[in-house]
UniProtKB/TrEMBL annotation:
Homodimer. It holds the Pfam family SPOUT_MTase. HAMAP family: 23SrRNA_methyltr_H. This is Ribosomal RNA large subunit methyltransferase H. Keywords: Cytoplasm, Methyltransferase, rRNA processing, S-adenosyl-L-methionine, Transferase. GO terms for cellular component: cytoplasm. It is found in: Cytoplasm. It comes from the Bacteria. It is an enzyme of class 2 (transferase). The gene is rlmH. PANTHER family: METHYLTRANSFERASE, RIBOSOMAL RNA LARGE SUBUNIT METHYLTRANSFERASE H. It comes from Trichlorobacter thiogenes.
Length: 153
């Protein structure tokens, strides 16, 4: 199974870039991972920007990709349950598991409707940039849990 993460907008802060590089490198030891950064629409009116970003994101998906949309209103899982979720897809023939992180204004309904799961990392709202290393660390943690390695305590 391939993992893919798609996000809207450039990663600007060096400390976020560092976290992204660190944890994406760690994940690569367990599963192939691709990260795609799409152009955001931060200068467009809010609803229109969300709609355009959503269209751009959905065009990227192959029909059999399983989409997980990150959204603070989604389902919260603990790290073990999140690992089980990834493991279930890995072991049941899912070819591509795609995690999507929205832009500054979040996702359109079209993206949420396409998603197999809408996942919250917390009920709190983080910046769209900060979610990137947080998600990557949780995926790395999940990989270590699935491999019975002593990282998760
Ligand atoms: C600043 S938030 C957008 C918040 C906006 N109020 C909304 O309606 O979605 C930007 C992106 O960061 C991600 N995000 C922020 N906080 C999150 C959380 N607690 N759990 C999961 N994703 C989160 C989501 O992908 C969201 O689309």
């Amino acid at each position: 199974m391939k993992l893919r993460i798609i996000w809207l907008g450039k990663t600007r802060d060096p400390w976020i870039k560092e976290g992204v590089t660190e944890y994406s490198g760690r994940i690569g030891r367990y599963l192939p991972l691709a990260i795609d950064e799409l152009k955001d629409e931060k200068d467009a009116p809010l609803e229109e920007g969300r709609r355009r970003e959503g269209e751009r994101l959905l065009k990227q998906l192959s029909p059999n990709a399983v989409l997980v949309a990150l959204d603070e209103r989604g389902q919260q899982l603990d790290s073990v349950k999140f690992a089980e979720f990834i493991g279930k897809h890995r072991d049941s023939g899912t070819a591509e598991l795609v995690f999507a992180i929205g832009g500054s204004y979040g996702f359109s309904d079209e993206v949420r409707n396409r998603a197999a799961k809408v996942l919250a990392l917390s009920a709190m709202t983080f910046t769209h940039q900060m979610v990137r290393p947080f998600l990557l660390e949780q995926i790395y943690r999940a990989c270590t849990i699935l491999n019975n390695e002593p990282y998760h305590h």
